[in-house]
Write a structure and sequence with these properties.
- By secondary structure, the protein is of the alpha/beta class.
- Helices cover 21% and strands 25% of the residues.
- The protein has three helices and eight strands, in the order βββββαβαβαβ.
- The strands form two sheets. It has a five-stranded mixed sheet with strand order 5-4-8-6-7, covered by helices on one side. It has a three-stranded antiparallel sheet with strand order 1-2-3, with helices on one face.
- The radius of gyration is 14 Å and the shape is globular.
- It starts with 13 loop residues before the first strand and ends with a strand.
- The relative contact order is 0.25.
Length: 125
Amino acid sequence: MDVTPLVREGQQIVQSYAGGQFQISGQFFDAPIIVTPEETNPWDIKNDFSSLSEKDFDTLLNYTAEYDVFLLGCGSDMAFLPKDLKNTLRSKGLSFDVMDTGAACRTYNVLMAEGRRVVAAMFPA
């Protein structure tokens, strides 16, 4: 399904992801990123999903007032946040749909094209 015609000019769309790299609206990224319909920014953390800590989500807490859906792309293999970390983040108003990065990219594109207020924090696949 080609969602490109549904994307308003200037919105961030995931064009490709593979080989440890993302292409977002013509720009290439080879490290963890945070994508919203308005912008794509590096996510200043280690490129290791298993080492995530509460501190790594400080930047994402700034998005809770503006966005409704939070996706977490964990890389090429499915993984889950530790229960304690998940509960701590939830208590701060941050709840993720965790999925492999490919699924996160596709889900982000569809939700963004539908006009949803979505954020995707993703590790390269």
